[in-house]
Amino acid sequence: MDLAEKLEILADSAKYDVACTxxxxxxxxxxxxxxxxxxxxxxxxxxxxxxxxxxLKVLYSNVCSYDCSYCVNRRSNxxxxxxxxxxxxxxxxxxxxxxNYIEGLFLSSAVLGTPDRTMELMIEALRILREExxxxxxxxxxxxxxxxxxLVEKIGRLADRLSVNIELPSETSLTTLAPxxxxxxxxxxxxxxxxxxxxxxxxxxxxxxxxxxxxxGQSTQMIxxxxxxxxxxxxxxxxxxxxKYSLKRVFYSAxxxxxxxxxxxxxxxxxxxxxxxxxYQADWLLRYYHFSARExxxxxxxxxxxxxxxxxxxxxxxxEFFPVxxxxxxxxxxxxxxxxxxxxxxxxxxxxxxxxxxxxxxKRIGVVLKRAQYFITCKGKAAARGSRAExxxxxxxxxxxxxxxxxxxxxxxxxxxLPDAAPAVQxxxxxxxxxxxxxxxxxxxxxxxxxxxx
Length: 454
Hints:
GO terms for molecular function: catalytic activity; DNA binding; iron-sulfur cluster binding; metal ion binding. This is Putative DNA modification/repair radical SAM protein. Keywords: Iron, Iron-sulfur, Metal-binding, S-adenosyl-L-methionine. By secondary structure, the chain is of the alpha/beta class. It has three domains: 211 residues, no CATH class; 86 residues, no CATH class; 56 residues, no CATH class. It has 17 helices and eleven strands.
């Protein structure tokens, strides 16, 4: 098998891993080295068809000794297999960099034999890049659960960001679908990375020659929709991971059925893209808006509303908190208002030091007045008044009713529900209703339900 065939197989095998970011490292180029890293981040990946992108996203090997039911690379699945050698991967990365295809590397792997053996091969590839080719660009490496702590430390000295995929939201699901993986084997390297990363930051301040350890921190990924856990369970887990392990990001991957298994959704099941979107929105609220997981979801409502974003859902549940006076409210209170984000909240706090703010000033600041106007007062006066139906219409998320056009021929177009539209829209379309009619029908029902709740 030549290198191009290996690349095609292993780049395709890596496409299901969404935990691919590079923010957090700002390392300028230096004499005698190749590349640099920008803190602004790199969020793209190389595809096997030769397009110019930013990260080479690839597996070291897709030959796996594990048999995880949800994974396309599982041992029992019949698919083409390939494995790089350390030097092949290093030379491939440098070759792409010199052609200006990429700025960095995202490296993961199936478990080739044992976790330790897999990590040793990945470390050797990164060593060649860093020490022989003097590659100074960004590297994100996946840590294989169950590997020796010494290997985790070695790869942390070579990579900018590490990640350990938690895979499934509960130990029960992990035991059922991935019997070769253990919760403790996943959490142990997470804890080690958190401790060593914090220690490394202190050493970098004290000692000039200190070597950084995973300076961009760590992240993880969990698969959504393959198992029956609620959104509340997932957000509780996410909040715990951020607090205990100081993760930079938790990524959510909507399960795409790729293998036939009675314990998993059927192959024709659409991936829950809208649910994934709601989880990312809630994750943002945890990290930047100072919400807690238990504020966003309750025992009575353990899953996010498909028609409202999580912040609007919270606002509808807590009418006693509103209206908020923009000229006196704290930044924390402003962040609870639909339509006001972290940047606009900070701008409001700064601007009101020199003047009283009205609707015109809020618009210039960047507040989304379509939503915010019903939850605020300016100088003691209500910014806007509307009926419950008008307010409900402003709060509904258009993404839940998104419809595009499918071209059947040069002059024949039909509406089609987009993949991340609400499940109800997709079900009606599957039963023969036109997509645009289905979207209007579901929106009208959602509007009536929300109006009654308010």
